[in-house]
Amino acid sequence: MNLTPHTGRCIICRQDNVVLSDEHIIPKSLGGVSHCYQVCKDCNSILGDHVDVGLVESPLSRLERYTKKLKGQSNTIPNPFDGTYTDDKGNKMRLELIDGKFVPHLIPEVNVDAAAGTFSVAIDVRDQKQLDSIINKVAKRNGFKLKGRGQQQIGKIDNPSISIEHQISLNEIKMGLLKIAYETTIEFLPTYYDDPKAEIISSILHDCAFDRLGEVQMSDGFYDVFKSAFASVIDFSKENRHFVFLLNIDGRLISYIKLFNLYSIAVEMSEKSYPDAGLGLVLINDWEEKKEYRFTMEELVALAVAQTSLGLSFKESVPSSVQGFYSTLDKKNIVFDAAGRPLCVLDDLLISLPDANVSETAVIDNEFTTQYTIPSGYYLLGAPSKILLPLAAVSVTSHIKKF
Ligand SMILES: [Zn+2]
């Protein structure tokens, strides 16, 4: 076992021979499971403390982490409404998470009338047990001698209305998303490291330079482009996944990130296209099952149409004695001529047919069928009784199973 730490080039500070570390491409607190081992220890800390934190701790993310029950580094689910709030009647309260609901909890309020030597205490009814100790504390602090308890009233605050204001920094979110785009692009396309834009992005990330974010084109209007490119092979109705796409569009390399249904942004990664990106690349991070997938579009297409079924029709009726057809060892039907001599496998015959003999149906209910009209002279050999049957047509139905 090799226990010496892995050394190499860091894609953030661009130094050689540095000790590399385990960097989460999408922050772990957002359900990220994809790793990148091309960031040095120091840069990993910088990214965690300055770049990731703005995205992870954004009120929007905290609310999403809460609703999705995603634990953070401290292994706790964040309360997106931490803090003290004042309702429209001036009552101070905090919001507590009880059985998945936000319940207001009145913060004890003490009013002292020093001249009259009296005071009043208002507490949440759930804090009643603490009433005596609160009264004693207030009395002690104010130098009062308790002569006896005054009146006690239990009131009810009906429908308290709290207005909550959150500061949301779009730049902090953008910085976090830019890092995800950058690391994913280098993971997929190692030569991207030398791209002029890659140098700019790595230095923006390294310095967490919010004032330089304008040097990278980022826009949120690209979702339809990416969705339509991948919609036939990816099931976008599943909500438990983050996506990072890479696609060449109009001679530029664009990364598109979608986290939950919350953040979606396109980033121009390069002013040139990358042939190695093929028809498109995607990193899928399933935050529920904690799994990641990296696919080329070609792989997704192959996965999607992997299942096919054959329909055979003949120019004459098939005797009931025919239970199957002679095939090769790998179960491909063999085509024979009228004299019973083998010609080829059925797949090869279908491929050789002219376009006029081929028709396709549109995709309906996740399947499409290709219909082949077979010219005269081609037979399949029925088993077990060896009967030659003249082929009339073959239909191949492909079942599309979106990933
Ligand atoms: Zn570094």
Secondary structure blueprint with pairings:
Elements: E1 7-8, E2 18-24, E3 35-40, H1 41-56, H2 59-67, E4 84-86, E5 92-98, E6 101-106, E7 109-113, E8 118-122, H3 131-142, H4 170-188, H5 196-207, E9 218-219, H6 223-230, E10 241-249, E11 252-259, E12 263-270, E13 281-286, E14 291-296, H7 297-304, E15 307-314, E16 324-325, E17 334-336, E18 342-345, H8 346-352, E19 358-360, E20 367-373, E21 379-383, E22 387-399
Antiparallel strand pairs: 1-2, 2-3, 4-5, 5-6, 7-8, 9-12, 10-11, 10-13, 11-12, 13-14, 15-22, 16-21, 17-18, 17-21, 19-20, 20-22, 21-22
Helix pairs in contact: 1-4, 4-5
Residues 10, 12-13, 15, 18, 40, 42-43 line the site of zinc ion.
Write up what this structure looks like.
This protein has three domains: 7-54 and 169-301, no CATH class; 84-142, no CATH class; 305-399, no CATH class. Helix 1 crosses helix 4 (170-188) and helix 4 (170-188) packs across helix 5. Strands 15, 16, 17, 18, 19, 20, 21 and 22 form an eight-stranded antiparallel sheet that branches. Strands 9-12-11-10-13-14 form a six-stranded antiparallel sheet. A three-stranded antiparallel sheet has the order 1-2-3. Helix content is 23%, strand content 31%. It contains eight helices and 22 strands. With 403 residues, it is of the alpha+beta class. The chain starts with 6 loop residues before the first strand and ends with a strand. It has helices at 41-56, 59-67, 131-142, 170-188, 196-207, 223-230, 297-304, 346-352; strands at 7-8, 18-24, 35-40, 84-86, 92-98, 101-106, 109-113, 118-122, 218-219, 241-249, 252-259, 263-270, 281-286, 291-296, 307-314, 324-325, 334-336, 342-345, 358-360, 367-373, 379-383, 387-399. The mean pLDDT is 90.
